[in-house]
Write a structure and sequence with these properties.
10-stranded mixed beta sheet, single chain, elongated, 288 residues, Rossmann fold, 2 domains, alpha/beta
């Protein structure tokens, strides 16, 4: 089965963190297809009484942003080609904003049946409102059922994937994502981390199903590392483990590390949200 990624591209060719992460993280690339997406601001007055001059200015501004988008897409494509991706694996899509940046990205991800959407710095800032627990009900109801990869500023040269497990369904779904994405990337080991904050009576009931899940997916046992850390601060423990062992990726379920006490569940659990806001160097993969 192929791996199909939608990589959002901002208008700054010097950043493109999502592109740079994908370009260097994967070695076994033959089954991968990548779409680079840029959604450009669009200026169009809704007031039919606006002067011709104003409409011309709106059109000129829109074209300026479209040109910046084309330049960024070309830069992203060049980065991937320079890292030995093949031209036929890469497509680019430039589109003016229609429903809003978030809505357009999600619509494209759903229509294209992508395995994950990769967010660089600009993509993260656009989605940031979605991640916050006080976001509006309308935003929380968005049906985002694909993994999000948040590449705020990934460090080149890191390797391996750290999967946070607690026995929850989102955590087990993330193991399936990890299996799909790095199952044939033998240069990467997979660490299973459980932070024991005292809420689980038998840690083995959490770790063993996760380990078996990876084996069933086809990950060789020698690539799997299991670690349990006792700490009341779950997010800090995860950050410490990732930094100490120089993990390239930290993978979590959207609500998979930390139980929410409120009946009104936010888009992300509080611990996953904290990681999103504080994790450095490693890329964060978040499953539904």
């Amino acid at each position: 089965m192929g791996r199909k990624l939608l990589i959002t591209v901002g208008d700054d060719p010097d950043s493109l963190y999502g592109v740079r992460f994908v370009a260097t993280f994967f070695n076994n690339r033959r089954d991968m297809t990548l779409t680079l997406l840029h959604v450009a601001p669009h200026f169009e007055s809704m007031d039919l009484g606006e002067s011709l001059r104003v409409r011309e200015m709106d059109s000129a501004l829109s074209e300026i942003y479209m040109k910046k988008g084309r330049k960024a897409l070309d830069a992203g494509r060049t980065i991937l080609l320079n890292e030995d991706f093949q031209a036929h694996q890469i497509s680019t899509k430039l589109m003016p904003k229609r429903y809003g940046m978030i809505g357009d990205m999600i619509e494209e991800a759903i229509q294209g049946s992508y395995d994950a959407i990769v967010l660089g710095r600009r993509g993260y800032s656009i989605f940031e409102k979605v991640f916050h627990p006080w976001v509006s009900e309308a935003t929380m109801d968005l049906e985002i059922d694909f993994p999000l990869w948040v590449c705020r500023r990934p460090e080149r040269g890191l390797k391996d994937v750290l999967v946070c497990v607690d026995g929850s369904e989102p955590a087990l779904r993330m193991l399936e994502v990890v299996g799909l994405m790095v199952g044939n990337e033998e240069q990467h080991g997979i660490g299973l981390l459980h932070v024991d904050d005292g809420t689980v009576e038998n840690v083995e009931t959490v770790m063993e199903p996760a380990r078996r899940k990876l084996l069933e997916i086809g990950v060789a046992e020698e690539r799997i590392r299991v670690r349990v850390v006792r700490d009341s601060d779950v997010a800090a423990a995860v950050r410490g483990e990732a930094a100490e062992n120089r993990y390239a990726v930290v993978a979590v379920g959207r609500r998979g590390i930390g139980r929410e006490s409120s009946l009104r569940k936010p888009f992300m659990g509080s611990k996953s949200l904290e990681l999103l806001q504080t994790l450095e160097k490693a890329t964060l993969w978040v499953s539904r």
